[in-house]
Design brief:
Blueprint lengths: L13 H11 L19 E5 L14 E5 H10 L14
Antiparallel strand pairs: 1-2
Length: 91
């Protein structure tokens, strides 16, 4: 365990953790789809089971790998977990 496992936001080593998790798991935890030549590099995404803004830790026990489709479905199913980016209007 690392002190960053108890970080309240994305920890300083987040990119390293994310890449490490992606390299360990090669399939989506929901649908089982695996990366193929057709899929882009970022086929799998790291998802917080308990969102960071709700106190979810960035530890491996609170993270799972999801393909882009399953990740999108998870946030549609649980919209309170999804934070929309604010669009800046240009004049």
């Amino acid at each position: 365990k690392s002190i960053y496992d108890y970080w309240s936001t994305y920890p300083p080593d987040w990119n390293k953790r994310k890449e490490s998790l992606k390299n360990e798991g090669k399939v989506c935890n929901r649908c089982g789809k695996s990366k193929s030549r057709k899929h882009k590099k970022d086929f799998l995404e790291v998802h917080h089971i308990i969102p960071a803004h709700k106190g979810g830790a960035p530890s491996n026990s609170n993270l799972e790998l999801l393909c882009k489709n399953c990740h999108k479905e998870e946030h549609i199913k649980n919209p309170h977990k999804f934070r929309k980016k604010k669009k800046i209007l240009q004049t």
